[in-house]
Amino acid sequence: MLKIKDLHAGLEGKDILQGINLEVKAGEVHAIMGPNGSGKSTLASVVAGKEEYEVSRGYITFENEDISELDPEERAHKGIFLSFQYPVEIPGVSVTNFIKTAINETRKSKKMDDMPASEMLKMIKEKADMLEIDRKFLSRSLNEGFSGGEKKRNEIFQMAMLEPKLAILDETDSGLDIDALKIVANGVNKLKSGDNAVIVITHYQRLLDYIVPDFVHVLMNGRIVKSGTKELAYELEEKGYDWIKEELV
To answer: Where does the ABC transporter domain start and stop, copy by copy (predicted)?
Structure first.
């Protein structure tokens, strides 16, 4: 589904990613861990197509198509979803209107008609119930005055509604208490299928107790320096990252 080969990318002519190689297949959950400043959020941003980042070498293919030159909205229409670490507030645009627009823009890109209103309302109700979201929440302005937990739950609600092929969750667990974490993780688990894939970027092993990864990758200095199963996440929790740094010397 996603193949990243020798990816070098960064900001203002300075590479943050120093040769990333990663393959993600349909049905898989990959966790990316690493110390602050290692390039985790940069990797998420580059895959999603954030325009301030420049790719200096390597390529990214999604479903066997090179997407390196595509705009963020084109990548989104193809099924790539990025859940932000710090979701933006948009006053005056309700959660419901935002999601309706996003869905219908994606349909338009595939030369489909807008989703019928009755179908949209039914889907909104189902997904809101699944994520334990109060219906009043959906009429509020997007992220305005939301708590950290509400913002993250809203991101997962968007993911549920858009049904992406590849969901990248960038530190979705930051700032969440344990109850909010369980609800968010439960939503992600319900949305997992053999046809989609999830990349979870996290500092903490605790999220991986609830969203169990097939693979764990450690990112350091812009490279994936170690990969393993979920046991690797427990090892990192227990020992930190210094032992991996020592291995690399």
So the answer is: 2-246
SS3 (DSSP) at 96: helix
Which structural domain, as residue segments, surrounds residue 66?
2-248
Tally of domains in the chain: 1
Res 249 pLDDT > 70: no
| Average of per-residue pLDDT values in the chain | 90
Instruction: Please give the C-alpha separations between residue 99 and each of 36, 142, 166, 207, in angstroms, as whole numbers.
Output: 32, 10, 18, 26
pLDDT tens, residue by residue, 146-163: 887 788 888 889 999 999
Q: pTM for the full model?
A: 0.90
In the three-class reduction of DSSP (H, G, I as helix; E, B as strand; rest coil), residue 59 is classed as strand
Q: State both tokens at 157.
A: 């609600």
Q: What percent of the chain has pLDDT over 70?
A: 100
CATH code, domain carrying 69: 3.40.50.300
Q: Where are the alpha helices (DSSP H) in the chain?
A: 40-48, 72-78, 95-109, 117-130, 148-162, 178-191, 230-239, 242-248
d(CA 68, CA 35): 26
Taking a C-beta distance cutoff of 8 angstroms, is the pair 202, 173 a contact?
yes
Tokens coding 57: 């070498």
**Contacts of residue 228, Cβ cutoff 8 Å, sequence gap at least 6:** 215, 216
CB-based burial of residue 208 (10 Å sphere; 0-12 exposed, 13-18 middle, 19+ buried)? buried
